[in-house]
Amino acid sequence: MFTNYVKIAWRNLWRNKEFSLINISGLSFGIGGAVLILLWIQYERSFDQFHEKKDQLFEVWNQANFNGEISSWGYTPKPLGPVLEAELDEVVAYTRYQIPYEMLLKYQTKGINQQTVVIDPDFFTMFDFPLMMGDKEHVFTKPESLVLTQSAVKRLFGDEDPIGKEVVLENQVTLFVTGVLADFPWNTEFQFDAAIPWALYKQMGFEDDFWGNNSVITYIELHPETTLETAAANVKGITRKFSTEKVDLILHPLTIAHLYDHYDNGVLAEGKIKMIKLFFWVAILIILIACINFMNLSTARSEKRAKEIGIRKISGAGRGRLILQFIGESMVMTFIASLLGLLIVSLLIPHFNNLMGTSIYLPFGEPFFWLTYVVFILLIGIIAGSYPALFLSSLVPARVLKGKLSSPKSAFGLRKILVVTQFTFAAVLIAATLVVKFQIDHAQNRNAGYDRDQLIYLMISDQLQEKYEPFRAELLASGAASSITRTMSPISETWSNTWGMSWEGKDPEVTSTVDRFSTDAELVKTIGLTIVEGRDIDIFQYATDSNAVLLNQAAQRLMNFENPIGQLIKDNDKDWKVVGVVEDFVVNSPFHQVKPLVIFGPDLWFNVFHVKLSPANTVAENLASIEQIFEKYSPDFPFDYTFVDQDYANKFQSEQQVSALTLWFSGLAIVISCLGLFGLAAFMAEQRLKEISIRKVLGASSANLVILLTSDFIKLVLVSLIIGIPIAWYAMSSWLKNYNYRIELGLGIFVTVALITLLIALLTVSSQALKAAWSNPINALKGD
Amino acid sequence: MEHIIKTTNLKKLYTTEEVETTALDDITIEIKKGEFVAIMGPSGCGKSTLLNIIGLLDNPDAGQYHFINQEVANFSERQRSQLRKGNIGFVFQSFNLIDELTVFENVELPLLYLKTPADERKRRVEEVLTRMNIMHRKDHFPQQLSGGQQQRVAIARAIVAKPAVILADEPTGNLDSANGEEVMRLLEELNNEGTTIVMVTHSPHDANYAHRIINLFDGKVVTENIREQFRV
C-alpha cells in the first residue's frame, strides 16, 4: 500500500510539473528561511551554556533609584568582588573582569597590541575554558603572570614553546607566560587575547577602593546548595554596608546574560531575546505561508483528483486510508523540499554570517540536528497535507464519478481566507521593511553636529603622553594635520559619566546624569563643532584653561544657565569654570536625544588624540607623515588609527542588521506568497477557460477578461491590506518607541505599502490572466 | 432462492436552493442471488440514483434497504465502505480508471484495500487479466488502451475481489457495437458463474442479456418484465 501511495504521489508530481515546481520551490524557500532563522536562534541561545557551573554563576549588577526611576547597570566597583567572598558564605569564588583593552605585549623585539583583560585567579576555575598549557589552580599564583590564547601565542611566538618566556607589558613590566588558553568558542561573551592577574594591576597602582567608581564586571560563583533567593537577599545590601553609596546589588544569571542585557525600571527587560522572539515568529509565518500555498494548490487541483478519489472509495478505500495517502503525498513533496531547503540554507549561511557577524553552521554531523530536522519536516508535511487530505477524502464518490465536484465554492471560500492570510503577512512584512529602512535613513541623515570627514583618532601611548607637546608641534609643522586635539575618548563615544556634579541653583533632590569629555585645545576646530557662546578651550593660549569647561546646549538647559560664561561647576571636589557653549552634537547613539555633556579642560585625563588631516595632501601622504612622527615619539607602540566616519557608521550596525534581516525574510515571504498566487491564478484561469471562451465569443475584449480574472484576486489583496495595515501600524509604532530620535508613521508609508502589495499581486496574477485571455476560444469549447 | 438485495419504499430527494426533486419514490424491489437484472428508463428517471443506493455509495432518505440480510439504509459512510469492500464491484460507462496507475495497478487496487498479501494479489490480478484477455497490456497506462480494452480492465477490477454483486452503469455506453457485445458476453459469463449483476442501461439489446428488466419512470417502478425463459 505504501509503495502504491509513493508511486502515485511521484507520478502525480511528475505529471503536473508546473504545480509541483511551484509547490516544492515554495516549500523549499519556506523551509530554508525557517531553518536559517532557527539555526540563528539556536546560536544565540547557546551563549555560555557550556560551563559546568553555569547555574551557579552570576554577574553582580547595581541598582539605584534616581528621581523615582530605578536604574540598573552591570559595572561595579573594584572592591566588590573580594568583599562579597569575604562576607558571604554562599559566595565561593569571584572574579573581577576589566573589559578587554588593547595593550602592548613585547617578546624580544616583536611587539603587538592585544586585547587584554584583568581578572582574578578564580576565573579559570569558575568558567570552562580549557587550558592547553599550564594548570588552572596555579597560572596566576604570581602577579607577573600572563595567560595567552592559542592564537595570541601563535602571533607572538610562532611555533616556539611559550611557557616561561618573558613578555614586556606596555613597556613597563616583565611578565612570564604561565598558561595557554584554547581559543574561545564562538558562543561565549568572553573574547580576549591575553589575561593578566588582578594582583599585577594592583602592583601597578591601578586599584582603588572607591565604591563610587563602577568600572569592572564582577562575576561570582554561588555555593551549589545555596538557593538563589537566599543569595540574592544577602548580596543586596552589601554596597550600602561598606560605603555611603545608595545602591543595591542584584544577581544577573550568566545563562541569560547574552539575551537579556538590561532592566527597565528595575524589571528584567528583553534585550537581544526580543529580536530572537520576533524572528521566531517570522520563521513560523514563513513556514505557514509555504504550507498555505501547498494547501491552496492541492485543493485547487481537487477536481483533477476527484475521479481517482471516487475510484479508490468504490474500490474499498476508507476515509482514513485516503487521508493517509494525501498526507503521504505532501510528505513526498516536503521531503524533496527539505533537501532543497538545506541546499538553500547552506548557500545563504556565509552571507548571513557575514551580515550578522555570527558563526552559524549546519550541524550535519550531529544526530540531534537530524532528529529535530526530521520531526520538523514531518510536522510541515502533516500541516501542509492536513487540509487537502481532509478536503479531498471527503468527496462523495457517487457525485465525483459523474464529474460533479461536491462543492467547489466552499473550497474556494477557504482558499480566499488562505490568500488573504498570506497577503496580510506580506503587507505587514513590507511595512516593517520600509519603516526600519526609513528609520535608519532618518538617523543616518541626522546632522551629527560635527565634521567626520578626514578625521582620525589614535590612542595615546605612555611614551607619547610624556612627549606630547613636541609631538604635537612637529605634527602641526609637518603640514599633514590641520589641527589636533587630545580627548578622554573618541568623539563617537563617552567613557565617563557622573551624577555627582553640582552647580549654582541645582536642586539637591534631583539626580541628573552628565556625560564627561575632555580636551586640551582646538576641539572645536578639529572636530568641527559650532560655538554658540564664548570660546574653545586652549591650554596653549590660556594657561588657566586647565580647569575650564565647555557645555553642550543640553547641559546648559539642564543647568538652567541664562549667562553660562563664567559660571562654576563642581565635579570631584574641584571647581571648573565655563568658558563656552557648543551646539549639541551626536556623541553616543544617533537614535537618541543628545544628553548633557561637559567637556573638561586638561586637568582631567586623556586617552586619545584626534587629528584633522590636511586637505592639501592626499590621505595616504598625510598618514605616512603622521606615522613617521608617531614612530619617532612612540617607537614601541604600533601605529593603529581609526577613521571617525567609520566609527560613526558602526553605530548603525545593529539596526542595519535588523533592516537586512527584515528585508531578507520579507522578500522571502513575498516570493513564496507570489508563487502560491501565481499557481492559484494559473489554476483559476484554466478552470474558467470555458467561461472565458464563451465570453470571448460573445464579444468580450482581452482587457475585459483580464479585469474579470484579476479583480477577484485584487479584492482579496485589498482585504489583506485592510487587516494588515493596522497590525503593521501597531507593531511598528511599538518598535519605534525604542528610539528617541524617530520618524513619524504617516499615511504615506502605508499608502506605499498598499501600492507595493497591490502591484506585486497584480504582476503575479496578470500574466496568467493575459495568457487565458489571449487563448483561442475554439480550443476550450470544442471538447465539450 | 434467497434475495441478496431488497428495498422497501425507498425514497430519495434532491434539494437545491429552491426546488425539491423526488429522485426515487417508494421503490420496492427484490433481487435474488445469481440474478441478472437490468434497470431501464429515460434520462432523469432515477436509474443511477437507485444504483448508487444499491451500491452503498449513497443513503436513501426513507425506506429500508436489505443487503445480504442486513438493514443498511442508515449505515454511516464508514460502515458502507466496510460492506462495499469485497462485496460489490462497479463497472462504469466512462471506465473510471486511475490515469496515474498502470493496468495491473488499477486492477490490484481493491485487493490492496482488502490487505491481500502481495503474492496472492499478483496471482489473482494476473488471473483476471488473462481471463479478460488483457494480460499483455498489464504495464500500460489507461490512456494507451482502446475503449474496449479499458472497459475490460474495469471489469477485471470489478471482479478481482470476487464480489457477490456487480453493479454496471451503462457499461457499453462508450463502446462500439463489437466491443459492447464482448463486454456483455463477459458479464453474462460472470453471471453464469453465480455473480449477481445489476445493470443500468438505455440499450434494449443489452437488456436482453438480463433475466429481468425493471422499468423506472419519474422515480417509480412502472413495470417489471421477467424474460420468458427465466420464468419460474
What does this structure look like?
The complex is a heterodimer of chains A (784) and B (232). Chain A has 784 residues and is of the alpha+beta class. Chain A has 4 domains: 1-47 and 270-406, no CATH class; 59-257, no CATH class; 421-438 and 652-784, no CATH class; 455-650, no CATH class. Chain A is 51% helix and 18% strand. In chain A, strand 3 (91-107) and strand 4 form a beta hairpin. In chain A, helix 2 packs antiparallel against helix 10 (272-300), helix 10 (272-300) packs parallel to helix 22 (653-687) and helix 15 (408-444) packs across helix 24. Chain A is elongated. Chain A starts with a helix and ends with a helix. The mean pLDDT of chain A is 88. With 232 residues, chain B is α/β, with parallel strands linked by helices. Chain B folds into 2 domains: 1-87 and 164-232, Rossmann fold (3-Layer(aba) Sandwich), CATH 3.40.50.300; 98-162, no CATH class. In chain B, 32% of the residues lie in helices and 29% in strands. Chain B contains 7 helices and 10 strands. Chain B has helices spanning 47-54, 77-84, 103-113, 118-131, 147-159, 177-192, 204-207, and strands at 3-15, 20-32, 36-40, 62-67, 70-71, 88-92, 165-169, 196-200, 212-217, 220-226. In chain B, strands 6-7-8-3-9-10 form a 6-stranded mixed β-sheet, sandwiched between helices. A 4-stranded antiparallel β-sheet of chain B has the order 2-1-4-5, covered by helices on one side. In chain B, helix 3 packs parallel to helix 5, helix 4 packs across helix 5 and helix 5 packs parallel to helix 6 (177-192). The radius of gyration of chain B is 18 Å and the shape is globular. In chain B, 49% of the residues are buried.
